[in-house]
Amino acid sequence: MALRTFVSQDGTLWNVWNVVPTLVHNERKVSLSTGMTSGWLCFESGGIKRRIVPVPTGWEEWSEDELDSALAKAQSVERRLPVEGAGPAGEST
């Protein structure tokens, strides 16, 4: 996994890395949307996440301007929090 850090044009510091998914998390299968099984590029800053699916070829060598341009096109990701009191399959415990 490569990791890059850059400053966007608005002065925000972003971390960027490629995600290579495994299909099991905490002993339960994880369902991924179509196209995501090959991975995605994740942008993160202060709890805000965005992603590009699939991982663009050669992104590790992009300039900060190219990363900033890709960030502008990246999809926002809502944080999914586990349901309090839910078991592994979402049942109440």
Polypeptide structure, described:
- It is a single chain.
- Helices cover 11% and strands 32% of the residues.
- It has one domain (3-77).
- Strands 1-2-5-6-7 form a five-stranded antiparallel β-sheet, with helices on one face. It has a two-stranded antiparallel ribbon with strand order 3-4.
- The chain has one helix at residues 64-73, and strands at residues 3-7, 13-19, 24-25, 28-29, 40-45, 48-52, 75-77.
- With 93 residues, the protein is mainly beta.
What Rg is obtained from the alpha carbons, in whole angstroms? 15 Å
Q: Main beta sheet, described?
A: 5 strands, antiparallel
Lateral strand order in the biggest sheet = 1-2-5-6-7
Mean pLDDT, to the nearest integer, reads 82
The termini sit apart by 36 Å
Order of helices and strands: EEEEEEHE
Unreliably modeled segments: 89-93
- Main structural class: mainly beta
Q: How many runs of DSSP E, i.e. beta strands?
A: 7
3D shape: globular
- Please tell me the total number of domains: 1
Number of helices: 1
